Amino acid sequence: MCRFFELRPHARRPWRMEFQVFLLSLCLCLFAAPGWSQDSVPRYSPPELTDLPMIFETSESPILVEAVATGLSHPWGMVFLPGGGMLITERGGQVRLLRDGLLEAEPVPGTPEVYVRGLWGLMDIALHPDHAENQLVYLTYNKPADERMTVALARGRFDGGAFRDMRDIFVATPDTSGGSRILFAPDGSLYMTVGGAFTPGTSAERAQAGDWHSGKVLRLNDDGSPHAENPFIGSEGFHPEIWSMGHRNQQGLAINPATGELWAHEHAMQGGDELNIIRRGGNYGWPEVSFARLYNGPRIHQQPWREDLLMPETFWVPSIAPSGLLFYTGDRFPAWQGHIFVGAMRVGRVRGTGHLERIVLNEDGEEIAREWILEELGERIRDVRQGPDGLIYLLTEADEAALLRLSPAEP
Amino acid sequence: MCRFFELRPHARRPWRMEFQVFLLSLCLCLFAAPGWSQDSVPRYSPPELTDLPMIFETSESPILVEAVATGLSHPWGMVFLPGGGMLITERGGQVRLLRDGLLEAEPVPGTPEVYVRGLWGLMDIALHPDHAENQLVYLTYNKPADERMTVALARGRFDGGAFRDMRDIFVATPDTSGGSRILFAPDGSLYMTVGGAFTPGTSAERAQAGDWHSGKVLRLNDDGSPHAENPFIGSEGFHPEIWSMGHRNQQGLAINPATGELWAHEHAMQGGDELNIIRRGGNYGWPEVSFARLYNGPRIHQQPWREDLLMPETFWVPSIAPSGLLFYTGDRFPAWQGHIFVGAMRVGRVRGTGHLERIVLNEDGEEIAREWILEELGERIRDVRQGPDGLIYLLTEADEAALLRLSPAEP
Predict the structure, then answer these.
(1) What is the pLDDT of residues B185-201, one digit of tens each?
(2) Does the residue A367 lie in any domain?
(3) pLDDT digits (tens, 9 = 90+) for A369-386
(4) What CATH number did the domain enclosing A189 receive?
(5) Which of A122, A209, A351, B330 could form a disulfide with B59 if both were Cys (CB 3.0 to 4.6 A apart)?
(6) pTM listed for this prediction
(7) Could you tell me which chain A residue has the CA closest to the CA of B376?
(8) How many other CB atoms sit within 10 Å of the CB of residue B298?
(9) Distance of CA A41 to CAs A26, A187, A303, B54, B116, Å?
(10) Considering only CB atoms, which chain A residues are within 8 Å of B55?
(11) What is the ipTM of this complex?
(12) How far is B230 from chain A (nearest CA, A)?
């Protein structure tokens, strides 16, 4: 049959061949013409949390992404308990317990009364370095104060099921709101960020004022008192808790294990989110200098730099709304050891998408490369932590959010 | 049967029920336990060019993305011919003709001899404002010069099938390579960018040297001669073609129709790609000031800003490797009128992904919002233009690249 067609197709049934060619052409025309229907065109839809587990590519090797827990409401911070399990804060004021891989339905009782407004409410959580012995847990949160609100640090004991004796051990100047991260340094001191220096002309100037806690990194003892080495102790008009100043709103705080330096990132206004190395007594310039613009367009300053104010290590322009900061030290992703991971909650103002950002430093701690991971998933990332298992854990930011676990995909 | 099970299942065959529950539990355990096989886990794979047409979401409304032509080799620039059809440059030195919706297999004859090295070769293409009458076409390209290379501007006539009388009308100082865009302004003058001011210590300093064309925007007449209004005419040690200086490597050039201002973006080193409004005689600072880092980490300068050097309108940190620049004025995307579109060829150094960036300006021309479009497609975008049909056309950057057309998706 084939041979016959090859030899003399037209001789046998020429009109049929022509008709076939005509039909084929008609089909092609219908498909290729500008007027063809879009009904049959596929719509791209990104993966959903319900599609997990799923494997995603990275520049190093593929990763398996699993949802360890779902149904979290705007989770903000997380800690891994020494005996296994996790505590996860929710912005609305609840702390959730993950035990034996399952999220307990009832929140942990004994949390402080939280003032929830817009993006602010219950924020970060940290364990005392000796938590296994003393059960101490720390929470930062926005609380009612003088008919307004402020940021406070509470300390209590977690007995495995509830918080006991949870009470404030530090309360910031009233009328302060904003993000707050807390971190115990290897020396046992407690660093705490206090946001709330948002807008030039109203609250931003507080970042430069020593009598406000807004826009500062604080260094405290484990009882909430100012650390003895703080730079402004005895300085007129300065709170003794202040370690560094000139910040806007910080939602990521970590220590670089290679150098012992404290790093933090902060949200700028439009464009110019910063990643800083936090130095004792350092002034990071907000709002005296900024690369950012007001949300309605004008530059905040014609001058983005001044010699006496500290430069960030790097920026994000456009803003990514960073939250969560990790220097990875585990052995499950050997290629990522020493790299910085930052959760990103959006790109620009228009469209909310997020990713996990990886920043590679050279031996001198200087940036040499970036990678955006999981942008395909389209989830805003609120926090990023390393688990005791060496895996990477993420909290997404949403009404219905998830705790995600990243592990190496099998080859 | 069902009714029976509901009423007294255990009474009838209790061991079978238990066995079923056991089997079900076993299945669940196998699936949920940490050791379960990843073989059944789906892998995310981004859409391919061969999956087009496809509809993608944007913050305004969905867009239909079609591949108008495929099989292009590193296309760089494109123009729409007045009688229909398009000319598309390929970096390797060829110009391709798209006619009646089909890409002609043979390149257009009559192009100049192009020196192709790394990222450089044949670059941009532009039509004379009176092209319909005089058939004049302009090409910028890297050409052999004194055993090295330089950037040149060639002019010839396109007769519908071939270039005639194509010859250089401007040749930059020798030992210049780099990207080059060309643009006819409404007043008939021709703006041309010349890159090649890459690395501090070697070529970057040429951006500040009046006797080099590298790192400059030039303003020419349509015959390649210097424009009479150029700011450095008569200045000792300055080429008369120079319009602005202190640039690094520019691959996008457009006029803001709302103001008549010339805008251009440029590639920085690591971090700090810039979008500038190009002013007469302006010095944009490279490499005297920069926010960027050398690729191996150190800052290029401790000082990122100087009062006498012009600030960009905005940056990209991390770098997106911008290429192509459009102010959209069409009626097919009414919500996007006046918005800036920039092709992006990568995010960071590690992983090559691209997108189309939309920048929204307020009434004073100040940035108020950004959106990343088509990042899901993962294609590097080399050029972005508006067609005479009011649709948006993109060139992807790849060995096997495509001309894409964006149109509003039907509701």
Answers:
(1) 999 999 999 999 999 99
(2) no
(3) 999 999 899 899 999 999
(4) 2.120.10.30
(5) A351
(6) 0.90
(7) A376
(8) 13
(9) 19, 60, 50, 6, 39
(10) 38, 41-44
(11) 0.89
(12) 27
